Hints:
With 299 residues, this protein is α/β, with parallel strands linked by helices. The chain has helices spanning 66-70, 73-84, 93-102, 117-125, 163-170, 192-203, 214-222, and strands at 11-15, 44-51, 88-92, 132-136, 156-161, 179-183, 185-186, 189-190, 207-210, 228-233, 275-285, 288-298. The model has no long low-confidence stretch (mean pLDDT 92).
Amino acid sequence: MESTNQGRRFEVLFDHAEPSLIADGAYAPYGNFGFPPPPTDRPWIYSNFVQSLDGITTLLGKHASGGEISQSPEDRWLMDLLRAHADGLLMGMNTLLEEQRIRGPQSRGIVFQVADPTLRALRDRLGKCRERNIFVTRAVDLDLSRHKVFDGDVVDAAILTSPSGAERLRAQGSHHPHVAILAAGEGESFDLPRAIGKLREELGVKYLLCEGGPTLYGSLARADLVDEKFMTVSPIEVGQMVPAEQERSASEQATPVLLRPTVFGGPGYTRENLTHWTWLSCRKAGDHQFSRYRRKGRG
Length: 299
C-alpha cells in the first residue's frame, strides 16, 4: 500500500515524545510517534488544530473548511496519523453541521475517518477496533437519519448528552444500533467530565482525539481534560474581523461585526490560573510548523 503523502517528509527539529509502540514503515514520513499510558478513569485526550500565523482557525463564509487555513498535504496526512491512534474522534455537533453546510443542501454530511490506506493498515496493526465518531450535543432537534455518520455502515458513533437529550434521542426508536448514547448530568444539565469518564468505562476508549470545535475544546481545557495538543501553524495571515467584501453564509448575515474564531472558545483564564504547556516536539514541512505540546498544569 502506498501512502498518499508522496511529497515532502517532515523535518524533525526536536522530539522528546515516547517511542512508537511498534516499529512500522508507516511512520517514515513523520518519524517517532508514541503516547504515554492513559489515566485509569478516563481517556488520554489529545487535540489537533490548524491555525494561521495570527491564530485564526477558519475564514468562515463559504471557505470555512480548515483545509483553507492549512493548505498543506502534510497537515492532512498528520490528521490521519492522529486518527489512526485514536479509539474515538470527539467533536461538537456544530463541526458536523458546518461540514454538511459546506457540501450543500442535499448533503447528509461526512464520516470522519482515516483516509490514507497505509495509515488504515497501521491502525489495524496497532490493534485498534472499528473507528468511532463521538459527538457532544444537547440533542434538542437532532434527527439521526439526516446524517450518514449515524448509519453505521462505515464507523460506529456515540453521542454524549444530558439525560433529557438522551430521552429525546431514544424516542427516535431503535433504527441506529451503531449509535451509543451516553448521558451524564441531571435533566438538561450536561456533565462533560462525567461523560468523558463514561467513554472509558462503557466503550473502552483509552485514547481520544478532539477535533473541535473551539467551544468544545475550551470546555475540555477549562475542565483540565486536554492532555496534549497538536498544532499546525500555516504560513498565512488572515485577520480576525471578516472583511466587508467577503461573501457570508446565511447564518452569518445577522452579525454586524463577524469575528473569526481561534482554537479556544468561551471564557478563558485569569493570569493566576493560566494553563502551562511543555513543548514536546517540533517539525516542519516547507514553511508549515507542526508542534506538539503536553499540559503541565495550572497556576
